[in-house]
Amino acid sequence: MSINSASLEELVDSWLQVDQNEATRTEIQSLWKKGDTKELERRMRPRIEFGTAGLRGKMEAGWARMNDLIIIQASQGLCQYVLQEVKDAKTRGIVIGHDHRYNSERWAQLTAAVFLESGMKVYLYRELVHTPMVPFGVKKMNAACGVMITASHNPKNDNGYKVYWENAVQIISPHDVGISQSIKANFAPKTWSVEQVHSSTNCVDVTEQMRKSYFSEIEKLKLSLYTPSTKPLLFVNTSMHGVSHPIVTKALKTFGISVIPVEEQMLPDPEFPTVPFPNPEEKGALDLAIAQAKNHHANYVLAQDPDSDRFSACELDSAGRVTAFTGDQLGTIFASHVFETYRDSGKPLSKLAIVASTVSSKMVEAMAEREGFRFVECLTGFKYIGNTALDLVKQGYEVPFGYEEAIGYMFGPEIRDKDGVAASVMFAQLAEILHREGKTIKSYLEDLYQRYGFFKTSNSYFICPDPPTIDTIFARLRNYNGLNSGADYPRNIAGLDITSVVDLTTGYDSNNPPTYQPSLPLSSGHMIQFRGEQKTDGTKIVLTIRTSGTEPKIKYYLEGNGKDSAQVSKLLTRVVSELGTDWMQATVYNLGHP
């Protein structure tokens, strides 16, 4: 049955025929009885689509939502695909973990039950874990794949199903397509019981073993210049009602560093009572932590998102003034210290590589050009950062660090995914090292600006819930001057000349004649990157505009760099204004803008 062509009654009937969860069956029956066709249409189509991010959505009954039936079908499809594609998959098994959200533990057990039903070994974490523990376990156990049940920093009503391949990195194409097709070929649920999870000898609890191994790897992140201070800095830490408090506390204690927890946000709570959007990047999300830091006269705030794969930080001076570091600033700080550590070890810089997503700051690129190590950019997301790192290792490079601007940081060779615990440990050590030198993280960043130039980002988005309108906006950008060439992009913005255009949707790169083929793979959504320059003073910008795969947004990532910080800041304001009024035509299309 095609969900798009079927009648609503057929969709409801097909749901009720297979769903054995009484709560979600009752939801659909109640809506049908009330005649709420509008809500049923939202619940029933389009079917939630499996992609490179796996699955993520609202927890409700229906083909378009996250629920038991969708989890079972996804697991059946994944299981059969892995058995087909991965050598010795049955004995190598799957690693499964979950966070504290509603349904997370049950869905981890349902996933395990499906794999057990097909005779696959299952390594199931029996306690709450942070997301990096799944790829860590996949690598350590040489498993065929991994699944983490989490919606990361999404609102409380969402949950997700994140898949890792046998290389311990999130899946990329063609596996997303292959798994999606396999799901459609294995719709009929084979089991609803989780009894095997508790009784089968094929279901192994590796929680304690992997936890000990993980902390052993964290200890290896100790920086050569770090020693515990006799007068240590004060750190306040927030876990955003997530799973990170015991893990971060123990990891930092290994280095002789203690933290003051934000008690209101310390324990796992699926209601997220103090932060409706439990994302350290969201405005106001760190307010409680900052207030506590001021009360304790603390030096820094550390923050992890609920599944603790992302990290953010703030610095407070003696007067209580707060510097909230952006994702790019933290990425640059980490990258610089990784470079300095590598250089001081005596290893050849020609063998050092650092990876960042293409929408992240170009400051690391400038650093690499000056210092002589390799910088490689890739598409957005750690599925690409991790795989790019693995490819570089095969080529003979060391890749001790990678990052994306959305506060995701990867350290060391054991986890090719972002890890908020590792980032917390690295940040705290660096802060202590600088403190002994009479410096702070902020002053260290300012020194980097002096050396490599001032870089400032201005990232945000336009809200557009209508996909055809988004297509129209991007079509206009590709035919901006009316030449109908398909590659007729804007030639200037805010007084800057556009010097290059890379369109990862159509496959066009103005820097690469005569083929004009981009070096990066194509994006599944709209994505265009522009570089511009003001010839009078050499000030430059990089502006990337892309659609979101999970939200009704046109996101933009804007960075300016030059010698004068005030001049760069003013320029970014003008670019954002012209981007909205002229390029996006926000008023014409009634686009929202925060």
Automatic annotation (TrEMBL):
Assigned keywords, A-Z: Carbohydrate metabolism, Cytoplasm, Glucose metabolism, Isomerase, Magnesium, Metal-binding, Phosphoprotein
GO biological process, one term: purine ribonucleoside salvage
Alpha-D-phosphohexomutase alpha/beta/alpha domain ranges (all copies): 48-186, 226-314, 326-452
Signal peptide: none
Main location: cytoplasm
Cofactor: Mg(2+)
Family of this protein: Belongs to the phosphohexose mutase family.
The protein's name in its UniProt record: Phosphoglucomutase 1
UniProt organism field: Lentinula raphanica
